[in-house]
């Protein structure tokens, strides 16, 4: 199974924070939604950390439309040390999350699509489990927040694709350097 992380990012490398979430919303349009649906349609399952799962599980089941029609029925895996029971077609990964993801990857064909960022993302990169990193670069400077891969050891990636989705947003797709 391939593991793809797809995440929004500001020009200054932020992926969260008060300034980030308000600012990025103004850049979405039809091409953005179309590409997001294409990425979702390629997924066999979704992977999230606990914080992302909590936000998604509160909002996505109530939504409809092209993205919700794909995201809601997909199987989901959540990495959490504290969550014991999950709804929304979700399985909580047991034990060490990195080992659990390695087992998922070895278990079959398809694509595991990861949303969210933070320590779980960093651990997956450092373990060499990420097959592709899609950065949806938004044309604004957040000024504060959490950096995508802050604190990670040096990791080299190759640029494999650049996709423009309108409103100045580009998706930079990277793969681990051979």
TrEMBL record:
GO terms for molecular function: 5-amino-6-(5-phosphoribosylamino)uracil reductase activity. Residues 6-170 form the Bacterial bifunctional deaminase-reductase C-terminal domain. InterPro entries: DHFR-like_dom_sf, RibDG_C, Riboflavin_Biosynth_HTPR. GO terms for biological process: riboflavin biosynthetic process. It comes from the Bacteria. This is Bacterial bifunctional deaminase-reductase C-terminal domain-containing protein. It comes from Kribbella pittospori. The lineage of its organism: Bacteria, Bacillati, Actinomycetota, Actinomycetes, Propionibacteriales.
């Amino acid at each position: 199974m391939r593991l793809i992380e797809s995440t929004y990012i500001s020009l200054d490398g932020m992926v969260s924070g008060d300034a980030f979430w308000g600012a990025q919303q103004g850049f979405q349009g039809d091409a953005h939604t179309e590409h997001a649906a294409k990425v979702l349609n390629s997924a066999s399952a979704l992977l999230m950390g606990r914080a992302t799962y909590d936000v998604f599980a509160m909002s996505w089941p109530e939504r409809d439309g092209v993205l919700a029609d794909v995201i809601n029925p997909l199987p989901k895996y959540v990495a959490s040390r504290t969550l014991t029971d999950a709804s929304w077609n979700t399985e909580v990964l047991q034990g060490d999350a990195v080992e659990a993801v390695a087992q998922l990857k070895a278990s079959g064909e398809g694509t595991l699509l990861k949303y969210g960022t933070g320590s779980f993302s960093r651990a997956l990169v450092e373990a060499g489990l990420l097959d592709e990193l899609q950065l949806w670069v938004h044309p604004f400077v957040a000024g504060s927040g959490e950096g995508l891969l802050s604190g990670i050891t040096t990791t080299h990636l190759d640029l494999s694709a650049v996709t423009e989705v309108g409103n100045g947003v580009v998706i930079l797709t990277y793969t681990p350097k051979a």
